[in-house]
Amino acid sequence: MKSRSRTVLAGAGLTAAMLLLAACGGGGDAGSDAAGGQVRLTYVSYGGSGQDAQIKAFQEPYTAAHPNVTFVNSSPADVAQVKAQVTSGVVQWDVVSVAPAAATQHCGKLFEKLNLGDLNTKDFVPNAIGECYVGNFGNASPFAYNADKFPDPATAPKTLADFFDTAKFPGKRGVITNLQNGILEYPLLAEGVAPDKLYPLDVDRALNKWATIRKDTLFAPNVGALQQAAASGQVDMFLLSDSRLIALLNEKKNIKIVWDTTVVSVNALAVPLGSKNKETAQDFLRSLVQPGPVAKITEMLGTVPVNLNAKPNLTDNGKAVEVYGPGNTGKTVVQDIEWYSQHWDEVTTKLNNWLVS
Predict the structure, then answer these.
(1) Is residue 153 located within the same domain as residue 188?
(2) Which end of the chain has less neighbouring CB within 10 Å, N or C?
(3) Within this chain, do residues 164 and 308 fall inside the same structural domain, yes or no?
(4) Is 342 exposed, middle or buried (0-12, 13-18, 19+ CB in 10 A)?
């Protein structure tokens, strides 16, 4: 397996706008980012321990260096809400977590084109820096299970095929419905599709595979919901991001990771089109991909550093979830951003329709 440092990643009118403002907790209107003025950035991510870490690693150092800037944090991030804000002309968010493919497909339409100054793409993993986004970390979503349910390693799940085998391994499964967490790749890999033959994705085949265990599966709307379900024992096996697996390990939950084939994606941040604080938001994005903040977020979440010059000092639990570390004896699949950027809306609609059917 290659070194982690060298291989990775690949509305609706005023009424709707006011409803969005209320739902998102306000923010974003503390003034423009004129020199010396007070600026309030509304930062929207996925909540929970992951967003707490982003506050410490990204926001606190930035506000220490820029006392005129404050942050309002909200969740969850949602491209549909960005679209509603942009369409209504009342943009309340300034920095939002987004899949690089979604930011690319809607670049200049829902998200601002960025001027990132002197960032050198050679310092970053592939696809970390885009025209309308900045990658804040690489995200893996390994297969893990509750070892209290499967205490004997000899008879515990060992492959992705086992995840879909409810006869041999009964119990509740859990998966995140976010496309970035491998919901379409994992069923195909479990059926034996080779990692280098995944794209273009056979979406219908993937959904048909999920249909075989649908009644035994919790389809969680976000990482926080699945993390909570895993922590409380509501699911016995789960496909959960490294940043939430490390939180479970830190809570001393008895979980084990199955290193078969693991899906890796870039997690990114973007600026909604029409943000009144675009300049400050861009400066903030430049700051958080520097080696120091990248190392800090990696240490806290066990994620993949996007800056090749970052030198994180991982804890034992960080090493346990390190997808490009020596503990991963399996394979990795990096999501194809180019393919997803051409099909994001189409695939999102098909998945959502299947989930509610």
Answers:
(1) yes
(2) C
(3) no
(4) middle
